[in-house]
Design goal:
This protein has one domain: Aldolase class I (TIM Barrel). The chain is built from eight helices and eight strands. Strands 1-8-7-6-5-4-3-2 form an eight-stranded parallel sheet. Helix 2 packs parallel to helix 3. It is globular and about 45 Å long. The model has no long low-confidence stretch (mean pLDDT about 95).
């Protein structure tokens, strides 16, 4: 049985007190902190950059799971590595050379991830699967929180789970987008290792972070 990890998305946190929110997530037994970086270009929204991530780093020892939705991404990898990211996940569409960008991430001793949008084929990641630590399956269109989960994306999870297990690769499968208590079980059954959740963790059960994290993990 795989050990399921929970990576709460701070996109749903109170941005006026992010440091406290992150500390509360650590107390609630989150495994990682998911940080969405959007540039208003690759996706139609703006969030935070490396300066904020660097400030937040002092609030927790939990790994920062940083998802870069920016383009072109390659020239900014160094900034996020130095800001304190532990995992840096990029999109194939955001770089001219995916393998080169993966190597750039690794050169800073960071874990490298590749994210697939709902319409992006799993074939985009299969050639580099042996080089990376994470595949992030987007189960909504990236750019905004609170969207409805797309169940069709679980087919990619199943393909990846089979490939990773067959080749005994180290890459973990993460899923992000509309994750709630109901579809979390479907995602885990399909082969997911890490669940990203924002709205459910911060809003369900009157914002009981610990309870919501446990329900996602074990439900």
């Amino acid at each position: 049985m795989r050990s399921i990890k929970i990576s709460p998305s701070i996109l749903s946190a109170d941005f006026s007190r992010l440091g406290d929110e992150i500390q509360n997530l650590e107390k609630a037994q989150a495994d990682l902190i998911h940080i969405d970086v959007m540039d208003g270009h690759f996706v139609p929204n703006l969030t935070i950059g490396p300066v904020v991530i660097k400030k937040l780093r002092k609030y927790t020892n939990l790994p920062f799971d940083v998802h870069l939705m920016i383009s072109p991404v390659h020239k900014y990898i160094k900034n996020y590595a130095e800001a304190g990211a532990n995992i840096i996940t990029i999109h194939p569409e955001a770089t001219e050379n995916l393998e080169s960008s993966i190597k750039e991430i690794k050169s800073y001793n960071k874990k490298a991830g590749v994210s697939l949008n709902p319409e992006t084929s799993v074939d985009k990641v299969l050639p580099v699967l042996h080089l990376i630590d994470l595949v992030l399956i987007m189960s909504v269109n990236p750019g905004f929180g609170g969207q409805k989960f797309m169940e069709k994306t679980l087919e990619k999870v199943k393909i990846l789970r089979k490939e990773i297990d067959k080749k005994k690769l180290k890459a973990e499968i993460e899923i992000d987008g509309g994750i709630n208590f109901e579809n979390a079980k479907k995602a885990k059954d399909a082969g997911v290792d890490i669940l990203v959740s924002g709205t459910t963790i911060f809003q369900e059960n009157e914002g009981d972070l610990k309870r919501n994290i446990q329900l996602l993990k074990t439900g």
